[in-house]
Amino acid sequence: MEITWYGHSTFGVEIGDETLLIDPFFDNPKTETDPEELDPDYVLLTHGHADHIADVDRFRGAHFVATPEVISYVTDEYGVEDGTGMNLGGTFETEEAYLTMVRADHTNGLDTDYGASGGMPAGYVISDTKPTQVSDEESQTFYHAGDTALQTEMRDVIAPYLEPDVAAVPIGDHYTMGPWQAAVAVDWLDVDYAVPIHYDTFPPIEQDTDDFVREVEATGSTAEVVVLDGDESFDLGGELDY
After folding, report:
1. How far is it, in rounded angstroms, from Cα 70 to Cα 34?
2. Are the C-beta atoms of 209 and 196 separated by less than 8 Å?
3. Which residues belong to any copy of the Metallo-beta-lactamase domain (predicted)?
4. How far apart are CA 118 and CA 120, in angstroms?
5. Are strands 2-5 and 11-15 parallel, antiparallel or unpaired?
6. pLDDT-based confidence at residue 138 (cuts at 50, 70, 90)
7. Higher pLDDT among residues 238 and 16, named by residue
8. What's the rounded Cα separation, in Å, for the pair 217 and 233?
9. Helices in 68-138 by DSSP H: which ranges?
10. Quick one: angle between helices 179-189 and 209-219, nearest 10?
11. Alpha carbon 67 to its chain's center
12. DSSP assignment, residue 181?
């Protein structure tokens, strides 16, 4: 499984012969990627805020996964042709991956004249093996936390049952967790690697990633903080390569 950060909360995930794209928003200062160069099989949306769905219309041919409310919105407003609406706790199976939608503590207003809600915001746990109560040390699993505050489901559900190897957690503060809460999340998740996201895009969320590194160390977590440059990738198979 190879993971590429395109800045803000936008990720590409290559798993087997499939490519997933999460929260397409390429108008951010960390990326130089032209979204027209990408051809994902699936697009996953954590919620309906503009900085997570702005480039949805570039990928109309992909299969979209989101809450039913967000799927309806991007179908009507962005011309999405193919989508699956699901909800928290559900797992969507592709030929190569299992996509489990998990809770995120945030808001989910849609950009409409009547202030519609996109339902509950979400995160995704993406694995190459089916999640069960039986631990699988051979699986490769990536957790995209979405826009969230610190919440105990990370400790009580995601860590023990979904067993992520790497977690992408927001550190920008103001709209999401800041560095110290994100560090507690990393400790609770018991991951091997932590990737900071959702920072430096706008003035209110400017952060020094060194603060996040220090906060993770202060928790006693053994996770390695991986600060990616925009458009940089790493591979979960074998040794970390970034």
Report:
1. 24
2. yes
3. 7-198
4. 7
5. antiparallel
6. confident
7. 16
8. 23
9. 68-78
10. 40
11. 15
12. H
Residues counted in the chain: 242
Tokens of 234: 């790493």
Domain chopping of the chain, boundaries? 2-235
Q: What string of DSSP letters covers 11-43? A: EEEEETTEEEEES----STT----GGG---SEE
Q: What distance separates the 2 farthest-apart alpha carbons in the chain?
A: 49
Cα dist. 37→21, 26, 166, 223 in Å?
A: 12, 12, 26, 33
Task: For residues 214-234, give the mean pLDDT.
Answer: 97
Q: Report how far residue 108's alpha carbon sits from residue 131's, in angstroms, rounded to the nearest whole number.
A: 27
Q: Does residue 153 contact residue 103 with C-beta atoms inside 8 Å?
A: yes
64, 71 contact by CB (below 8 A): yes
Confidence at residue 93, expressed as pLDDT on a 0 to 100 scale: 98
Structure confidence by residue, pLDDT tens digits, 78-125: 999 999 999 999 999 999 999 999 999 999 999 866 578 899 999 999
Fold exhibited by the domain 2-235: Metallo-beta-lactamase; Chain A (3.60.15)
Whether the Cβ atoms of residue 47 and residue 146 lie closer than 8 Å to each other? yes
